[in-house]
Amino acid sequence: GKARATIGTTVTLGRDNPPVTTGSQPTSECPVTAPGQQPATQGARSLDPHLRRYAARTAGMTASEIRALFAVASRPEVVSLAGGMPYLAALPLDSLSAEIGNLIATDGLVALQYGSAHGVPELREQICEVMALEGISAHPDDVVVTVGSQMALDMVTRIFCDPGDVVLAEGPSYVGALGSFAAYQAQVVHVAMDDDGLIPAALREALAAVAARGQRVKFLYTIPNFHNPAGVTLAVSRRAEVLEICRQHGVLVVEDNPYGLLGFDGQTYPALRSSDPDNVVYLGSFSKTFAAGLRVGWALAPHAVREKLVLAAESATLCPPTLNQLVVSRYLSTHDWKGQIKTYREAYRERRDAMLSALEQHMPAGCTWTRPDGGFYVWLTVPEGIDTKAMLPRAVTQRVAYASGTGFYADRLGSRQMRLSFCYPTPERIKEGVRRLANVLEGEIQL
Ligand code: PMP
């Protein structure tokens, strides 16, 4: 291939692709070639003695391009605009530590015990208060606590999708959701977006096309606010229409909203769930508003669906971790959590500003990008003829990493796009990263 550096780590960026060699120093974080193992080359797959045992559904399970990149992108000399790691430095660790110690001292026998698959009741009540900020009125019984909203995505797909069923999702869409859909062998049909989010006319067209093929759409998966990876928000004026189209066609809506409270001007938008409670399953998370490592998220679903979700959750995990749920619950009742969200918003806003001004300043002609009002991501389109995935090893050699666009599509579109995250690096590092990226792109244009 075109990769220039040959010493170091081999990162397999996708099942069908030859390994890409990047970087200079192997690190202990590089999982690919451990002592006594075969190097991760294409041949390694056929050396797997278990190959003929795997269930058919594992064929759709491929390494996320972003995860594969983590090892190289997390080296200190590389500015990583690839990952979506929240910026946690603003958390009050001392008082959290005291709170957690307290929790174990006073309620340890509950906190360290099994709980119900449904989730801790007091947390479910507090989750309803959080959702009220976006206009949702819900009963705590209809909330199911999950291990991050990722588990909710998995559960929802598990209870609705048989192999071959169609799921509609924005194009591009969240890589973790695409992973769940693939794991259950659902077929993803993408629906186009513009700067105002999902395009209602494109949704109608997609539904008509699927119907014409005689296939069954199980649900529309949508991220209305501060989209991952596109960075756009569904215009409020489109929301009723999207809901109406789905209702007309008998299609359930799965609304994934981990970033809704991270609008940079403190603005929130009415959740889809708030106007059509019976046809929307809403997914929420404390990962971006509090702490991702606790892995506490939730699903709010119509009664019957909620029952199925609880059964599915029971068989997956017995119950979500009691300790983590109680940590979140105590945090919400003893800390200024709204103030903390404001602190996060301000940090992310400063980073977004740094990224947008650096893009303005450095990007070569022909590049376009979205301008997010919240969340973590900018979606960048590069001039025709440049393949962002093929370019990635050269970018890493020049010490900048991004997430190439193809990982965000089920159908390998996105080769002229990339996702740039501004959530984690400092504003200075973001500017430097964008400057390096612009240099790499200039080099490609001249090739
Ligand atoms: N949905 C979207 C759109 C996300 O961006 C993420 C995290 N990157 C998740 C779901 C999963 O979040 P978690 O499992 O941490 O709640």
UniProtKB/TrEMBL annotation:
CDD domains reported in the protein's UniProt record: AAT_like
Biased composition (Polar residues): 19-44
One of the protein's GO biological processes: alpha-amino acid metabolic process
Taxonomy, superkingdom: Bacteria
InterPro entries: Aminotransferase_I/II_large, Class-I_PLP-dep_aminotransf, PyrdxlP-dep_Trfase, PyrdxlP-dep_Trfase_major, PyrdxlP-dep_Trfase_small
Disordered as annotated region, ranges: 11-46
Cofactor: pyridoxal 5'-phosphate
Domain Aminotransferase class I/classII large, chain residue ranges per copy: 110-437
Signal peptide: none
GO molecular function: pyridoxal phosphate binding; transaminase activity
Entry keyword annotation includes Transferase: yes
Keyword Repressor part of the UniProt annotation: no
Keyword terms of this UniProt record: Aminotransferase, Pyridoxal phosphate, Transferase
Record's subunit section: Homodimer.
Protein family: Belongs to the class-I pyridoxal-phosphate-dependent aminotransferase family.
The protein's name in its UniProt record: PLP-dependent aminotransferase family protein
Species, as recorded: Solihabitans fulvus
